[in-house]
Amino acid sequence: MLTHYPSALIKQISLTEEETKSSSKMDSIAVDSEEYLGDSLCGSISEGRDSILIQKVPHLECLQGLNQVLLSSNTILDSLLKAVTSNNLELCKSILTSSHPDTNTKFESNNTLLHLAANFGYLKICEILLDYGEDTDINAQNSELSTPLHQASSQGHLQVSQLLVRSGSDLNKKNIHGNTALHLAATSGNSTLVSWLLTRNPDITLKNLDGKTAEECGNDSVKKAFERYLKRTIVSSGPSLSNSQKIISRSKTVNNCEKIAPKCFLVLKELGKGSFGEVFLVSKQDTNQLFAMKVLQKDKIINQNLIKYALTERNVLSYMKHPFIVTLNFAFQTADKLFLILNFCPGGDLGRHLSIEKSFTEYRARIYLCEIILALEELHKHNIIFRDLKPDNIVLDEDGHALLTDFGLSKEKVFDNYQARSFCGSLAYLAPEVIRRQGHGKAVDWYLLGVVFYEMVIGKPPYFSMDKNELINNIQRGKLKIPSSLSSEAKELIIDLLQRDPAKRLGAVRDAEEIKQHRFFKGIDWDSVYRRELCPPKIPKINPPKTGIPAEDIYGNFYPADSNRILGWTFISD
Ligand SMILES: Nc1ncnc2c1ncn2[C@@H]1O[C@H](COP(=O)(O)OP(=O)(O)OP(=O)(O)O)[C@@H](O)[C@H]1O
Fold first, then answer.
1. Which of 78, 388, 406, 445 is catalytic?
2. Environment class of residue 514 by beta-carbon count within 10 Å: exposed (0-12), middle (13-18) or buried (19+)?
3. Which CATH superfamily is 73-233 part of?
4. Which of the following CATH numbers is that of domain 348-531: 3.40.228.10, 1.10.510.10, 1.10.1040.10, 1.20.120.140?
5. Nearest CA-CA partner of 426 in 447, 412, 442
6. Distance CA 153, CA 162 (A)
7. pLDDT (tens digit, 9 = 90+) per residue, 389-443?
8. CA nearest 180: which of 203, 159, 162, 163?
9. Which atom of ligand 1 is the closest one to the Cα of 275?
10. What's the pTM value of the predicted model, to 2 decimals?
11. Is 294 marked as a binding-site residue?
12. Is-catalytic flag, 102?
């Protein structure tokens, strides 16, 4: 444990601070050393928040005086230890910059200062140790072989864990019990931290000395986080855009960006979160009309070379008008973020419905399938492939009709079944040809239609396994299991769509036409489907919240985009 500090050391510092206090330049601090320590520990164990202790920190001028005392008493390291454990930012920074002590010195149980700060969740102190310490070892191990990341994760300190991982902490390092940071976060039941760690691609197959993977150590909410991870969209980094590509936009681009901007929309609540963006319910200030606003962070997109995907989503949505494709109304940007204003679909996504209801009747699934087939047919007619078909990307409008959303992975100008090459999709929803990387095309969407149909009527995607490698292997070689309770038409449709060879798959030759003629859809009048005349289950009316989320929390930096403007982004629909 990390709580034993030499009391002599604490007394000495208290005395020093008291001395400084007597020079009357300092805010009040506790005089008694025991009380001081208790106060500092209880009052400041919180990430990133200024603690009670910080308010009691001496002013900067007197820190210099303090430093001299510390230096002359030759207890620099002990003083630094005290500064770290009492969350005293200024003192810590001051000692590091003036005396350059070895921040990798081991204290009790071989803990370094970073271990201590990480364990307490002192975010700012961790930052200071990493920024000002000379070669602070981010992967130092204590006597239990734990790294600072192990400490932060076991205590559930999200921001500290994020800082450590982003600064180069080894995610797959094991402690003496064989646990990785992910195991510890899972054991503590912290599904938010688990979800975030999963986005950094740790090795989820690693087992601890009890033979358990991280997922096996978690409670139900942690297990759900793992399941969501396997269903998330992944992409390989996109190619960079040339300047000329950046200005290509296939529809009306508005130069006067003042017309549509964050101030036009009141943010009401979060609707969903994906790998790339967050989606919020917003109301347009002048009309009170509700919309879904998708927000993408520019730095994330630019760092991962994903601008092309963002621009494709904006472009495709700007010219696709279809009853079963979500409508884009506006696109605008600020210095930090990109915004898409979409029609709001109050029924939520099918993924959410499936996680509550487990599965749908064939009758209900057929309605959604018919609508999605028409949407995919329309895209294919424009030589666009969707590539990311999954229940989370199908949203229900106010009448319960199914609409495609999230065109981030769609690809334009695909004329055959082999032209596209990027490795992208969502792990649980990868088509075999995407895994083989031999090129894919329109047939990929028909395979994924089969996957969605399977999940709708059976309750989980085909070949599903929580083990990533097994999942990938199953998709390529596993035996397709279909319960006998399904109708023979449904079984046949699943088999025809999940055909591994894209050339033999239903839809390979005459595209949607082949699927529409399958006997599962016997009796369907496709014109009436297009006119939205099928009757899906009704969606309960929602009452939007009256109060909004503070604008600055969502919009961040309000400055209009300038140097980092993404050309061809702004859009106002006719
Ligand atoms: N028009 C909409 N109306 C209502 N909710 C929506 C709408 N569009 C998206 N959502 C919700 O937001 C979630 C995330 O949106 P979206 O899939 O576009 O984000 P993403 O970051 O691209 O996700 P992914 O990880 O699938 O790539 C959806 O699963 C859905 O629940």
1. 388
2. middle
3. Ankyrin repeat-containing domain (1.25.40.20)
4. 1.10.510.10
5. 447
6. 10
7. 999 999 999 999 999 999 988 887 777 665 566 666 678 899 999 888 878 899 9
8. 203
9. 25
10. 0.64
11. yes
12. no
